[in-house]
Amino acid sequence: MSQPTTNKNTLSSSIKVLIADDSWVFRRILHDIFKKMVHIQVVDDAANGIEALEQIIKHQPDVLILDMEMPIMDGLMTLQHLMIHTPTPTIIFSSLSQEGTPRSFDALKYGAVDFVAKSSFFKGSDMAADNELIIKKVIQASKISVKHIDPIQPSVGTCGGPSGAQHLVFCEDCGARNVVNMRAYEMMGGVQCSQCGDELKLNSSEKFRRSSYAVVIGAGEGGYANLLQIIPSLCVEIGGAIVVLIHDESEKVSSFVEYLGSISAITVVRGQDGLTMEGGSCYIFSGAERVTVSAYSGNYVFRVANDPAEMKQGTINLTLMAMAPLFKERIAGILLSGSENDGVKGMEAIRRHKGTVIALEPPRCLCKDMSEKLIRKCPDAFVVNEQGIVELIRTMEIQNRKQVVTA
Predict the structure, then answer these.
(1) Which of the four pLDDT bands, split at 50, 70 and 90, describes residue 237?
(2) Is the pLDDT of residue 11 over 60?
(3) Fewer CB within 10 Å of terminal CB in the chain, N or C?
């Protein structure tokens, strides 16, 4: 179930840091910050990606600070080579990669554990806060295990090839046999018959699927990287609904939804009030939203109220406790990386209703608080990495394939 991972450092020894940036000034600034820290040692620096890869082989650093825009080989290409051959916890620094942009999510998809925009890092006169931020991120990164990632390998979430599931549809007008790609059908809002050109109509059962089970995922700081290793690996044909709650601002969550949907086989939707829960779909909400579920005409409908205070109140707990009695043994709760004090009470409700309790293994969490608290409180929880989570969801799919949950 587990893939090879690397976790070379604890705070009992110095954290070895390599800095890769084409700006001498920026490299010097980081040198000055870290030289004041007893437990952080800058082993070398590099001005481009080629130099960085050579220095990594030589020094085997615990953390790489990598600029995105560099000559000869840029940061993204360097990261891809790195994660194939020498996986190393990597923090992306860039003048272009603001938090929540597709470029920053690209870096997380290809194996980076965190990112910081240079413009926000040097945003004003409070250099002490800036210094504290990068030191905190390096310490967090040094304690996370990273795995080999091959960017060429096709996603295991696709059914019938990289472009998604294939359906056989016969034209009602001419009777011609058509093979319809569901991803193309959804993106274009329909597809024409290859023979007569008439619009093909799918059966209502293909357009809407009641959920046979539910998976609720809670994530906080560091959770984006975990989700990028989980959601794209889910098959488009799954019969369950995936509900994700992320402790972050609404705008960044919406940006993530757009990016995640572009790389996933299943349908990824920004959750909102009034949506009906469908199998084969992933609904993502911000931690600033109060999310519950109500029964309506044999289906389940999301009820959402916007309340920024909810991020401090425990929105993951609220959703888990609302859904546990509805799905009972057909629900799984999962906690990923996060520093928030949220999710454990909701997981206890899942447990009481005979559902499945899952914690991402702490070495795969940038922030381990949520996962570790769950493991302490529920020692019988499944503790697995991202691939293990995908496999547990597949197990639920097999167990519940012939059943449909209705209100």
Answers:
(1) confident
(2) no
(3) N
List, in order, residues 6 or more apart from 68 with CB less than 8 Å away.
74, 75, 76, 92, 93, 94, 95, 96, 97, 103, 107
For residue 200, the enclosing domain spans 166-207
pLDDT of residue 246: 97
Does the pLDDT at position 90 exceed 90? Answer: yes
In this prediction, residue 200 carries a pLDDT of 75
Same domain, 190 and 246: no
* Distances, alpha carbon 80 to alpha carbons 43, 240, 292, in Å: 22, 32, 39
The answer on 203 and 100 residing in a single domain is no
Token duo for residue 260: 């995640």
Distance between CA 407 and CA 392 in Å, rounded?
Answer: 25
Q: Is residue 154 part of a domain?
A: no
Q: Is residue 155 part of a domain?
A: no
For residue 159, name the pLDDT band (cuts at 50, 70, 90). Answer: very low
Q: Which pairs from 147-154 meet CB under 8 Å and 24+ separation?
A: 147/3, 147/4, 147/5, 147/6, 147/83, 147/87, 147/111, 147/385, 148/3, 148/4, 148/83, 148/84, 148/87, 149/80, 149/83, 149/84, 149/87, 149/110, 149/111, 150/84, 151/80, 151/83, 151/84, 151/110
- Confidence band for 207, pLDDT divided at 50, 70 and 90: very low
Q: Is 16 helix (H, G, I), strand (E, B) or coil?
A: strand
Q: State how far the Cα of 175 lies from the Cα of 184, in Å rounded to an integer.
A: 21
Overall size of the chain counted in residues: 407
Does 312 fall in a domain?
yes
Residue 142 lies in a domain: yes
Number of domains in the chain: 3
